[in-house]
Automatic annotation (TrEMBL):
InterPro entries: AlpA, Prophage_regulatory_activator. This is Transcriptional regulator, AlpA family. It comes from Sphingomonas guangdongensis.
Length: 68
C-alpha cells in the first residue's frame, strides 16, 4: 500500500493490528522478539500502539501466497 507523503500517521492498538495481520497476540510478540515484526510505540506506563504505516509496510513485504 503506497502512502501519500501528506497522509497523516495514525496509531493503532493491538486489536486492530491483529485484525489487519490475521496474527494472534502471541505470534505478534514472538515475531517482534525475533526482529520480524514492527515494534510498537510506548504511549504511557501501560499502553502501546503501532504506527499504521509500519503495519501496512510489513503486510506489503510479505510474500504472496502461491495460487492466491
Amino acid at each position: 500500500m503506497a502512502k501519500d507523503a501528506h497522509t497523516p500517521t495514525r496509531l493503532i492498538r493491538l486489536p486492530e493490528v491483529k485484525l489487519r495481520t490475521g496474527l494472534a497476540r502471541s505470534s505478534i510478540y514472538r515475531m517482534m522478539e525475533e526482529g520480524g515484526f514492527p515494534r510498537p510505540r510506548k504511549l504511557g506506563p501501560r499502553a502501546i500502539a503501532w504506527l499504521v504505516n509500519d503495519i501496512d509496510q510489513w503486510i506489503d513485504s510479505r510474500p504472496a501466497k502461491p495460487g492466491g
